Amino acid sequence: MQEIRKDSKSLPNRVKSIIHDAQFVEFIAARIPQLPVIPNERAGCWYASPKLQSHGKSVYFKSTDGHFGQWDFSLKRMNYHILKFIGESQGAIIVDITRKGKRFPDSLSKTIPIWCAVINHAIKKISGVQGWDCKLYTSRTSVSESEESQIEERIPGFVERLLSSSIDLNNLPNYIKKPLRPVWIHPSTRMFCANDDNLLWSAEEFGELPFYPIVCLSASISNAQDMQNDEEPIFPIQNSFTYIQGAADDSEMWAPGITFKHFWAASKDITMDTRNAKIEEIFSKIKENVFSATAVNNYDWIGDTGIAIGNRASANPESCWDNFDYIINCGAPEYAYSSSSKYLYLDIPEGKKGQSNLFSSISPVLTKLEGLKEFPKRLLIHCMQGKDRSVGIAMAVLIHFNGRISSRFSFLSNPTKESILNCLLVIQSYRHVAAPSRATMKKINLYFIK
């Protein structure tokens, strides 16, 4: 029995499940051609093929912000970077999955509806436009009337939090000309059927919509509910593999080091008929070469600070010294120039193990930078992905030096939880993948708030 359970979650079954669900995403995208497909970090990126992600954009809506009783609008995950793109496209399709036996993850059923309502309220207050729809829209199949009512009570507080933050919202009315409204689609949504080539909206109908649709697309099949309701999914499961709902979730556990970009590069050699042994062989080769792979958007400059935050590829010795004068590595595997006087390695492991190391690294890195003859004009701070550890150290540098390297950060001269959060918001406006963990934020607060 244990062996059967282990085989059901094997790599070939995961890969084929992801490919199966990605075909559904392409099916829906073809029937809503007016809208771009934007994956929700992290798992959603595995379900949108490269041709759907050519714009290079993603969003980060956490399900925990929609958990019952914990409803929240997170300034850390405000996703400001995507609003202009949504305005230009007049909407978006946001892709995510869940593995918990339900049709929609809380990120799609509650976090995004909260986000839409808060953004709509903020635009109405800024612009003063009349008749602007600020209603909280939820799917009744996922959210009860009682829960919706409880969420609505919190919306005014979320709006006030956003409006009182350091985020520049004045241009929002220039981007968003219609209210945002969520729309939900899952693999058994009957507005589509496999042999129906009709579009969801004709060009004329789309132009006349009184809102920008934010299509919340849940890519994976919820077996239990579909069987219970006797609804056949648009793409029925084949018998050649064991289907796994939300197969890409927690990819760092079942495919450590492999990203969705590696997956899609390899998927051209994989079909539903590919032998399991061949799939194992393909992914084994990916693992062998994973650290040599480069990525799009390896680093981003943080305004006029001279500080860039990046992933490991941004520190590649073939080009790094053309771009940077000094490099701080926050725990990623080192390149051969580790003996350079313009290089500092911080031993900060990924995950929980690295939190104490991150805290103990703050003082040495600040002392090192203070000891230089002048602050580096082009400083790279990187970790493996450029999302957590490097962001935490970059925040520490910006807080410590505040207005000395950029007047933009002079508000950090007397750090508080609010000003430290605003520091992160400014960073995210330049590097939108920045997503330091709660533990990282706590360490920064602990170090600087006396």
Automatic annotation (TrEMBL):
Residues 4-286 form the Rit1 N-terminal domain. Residues 342-447 form the Rit1 DUSP-like domain. One of its GO terms (molecular function) is tRNA adenosine(64)-2'-O-ribosylphosphate transferase activity. GO terms for biological process: charged-tRNA amino acid modification. Pfam families: Init_tRNA_PT, Rit1_C. InterPro entries: Prot-tyrosine_phosphatase-like, Rit1, Rit1_DUSP-like, Rit1_N. It comes from the Eukaryota. GO terms for cellular component: cytoplasm. This is Initiator tRNA phosphoribosyl transferase. The lineage of its organism: Eukaryota, Fungi, Fungi incertae sedis, Chytridiomycota, Chytridiomycota incertae sedis.
